[in-house]
Design goal:
It is a single chain. The protein is mainly β. The chain is flat and about 50 Å long.
């Protein structure tokens, strides 16, 4: 994988639990990785929903291998938040192709 094509920065977040000042459990997003990535495909469109139309925003990133990615994680990229839907390993731990949709 050529470093020159990894021209974007993405942030991988994971839901964590903590306690607030009243010792009550709260859920927050914590950054678990900051990765260089390439945008392979970014599509925005409209789909029919039960009560009309809705906008869809799907994106595919290619990045160096990162172990521990889960579908419960999310990606922050250019001010938008995307939910991880799946990924494909490229080679033997060479890279990842991550598919995500806007939250």
């Amino acid at each position: 994988m050529r470093a020159g094509t990894l021209n974007r920065v993405i942030f991988i977040d994971r839901m964590t639990s903590g306690l607030n000042e009243n010792r009550t459990p709260v859920s927050t997003w914590a950054n678990i990785a900051t990765l260089r990535a390439e945008v392979i495909q970014h599509s925005v469109g409209e789909d029919e929903a039960g009560n009309g139309e809705r906008d869809t925003d799907a994106i595919t990133f290619r990045t160096r291998f990162f172990s521990g990615l889960e579908t419960a994680d999310r990606i922050r990229f250019m001010g938008r938040v995307y939910n991880v839907k799946g990924w494909t390993e490229i080679g033997v731990r060479n890279g990842l192709e991550i598919k995500a949709v806007a939250a």
